[in-house]
Amino acid sequence: MFRNSSLQTTDNYGFSLLEISIVLAVVGMLSGGVLAGQSLIKAAELRTVMTELREYQTAINIFKEKYFALPGDMSNATEFWGKLNSTCTTHAGTANADGVCNGNGNGTIDWVNYAPFVEH
Prior knowledge:
The protein is mostly helical. 50% of the residues lie in helices and 3% in strands. A hairpin with a 5-residue loop joins β1 (88-89) and β2.
């Protein structure tokens, strides 16, 4: 009738509150590290884009100082580089056999559809 507590065995299955809190803390640190890593990768990509933009701006400025025109808008480009054997598409969509196109010298670059160069 008396119970002897020292002889009683209880099988406790499961995790204690301390074990669960440690696991949650580790999972939180791992997920926080992953999110911080993603933001670092995004910042590096943005820095790369900004660096490329500065390089393009520098190249345009060097061209402008050397030839006194914007690249793609130089009205006397064929005088500098001559005529090549490739084709050149003008802003009107007509092709000529020069390969070097003269711009109109208006200070803006007229964009042309260069689809053959970007298609794979």
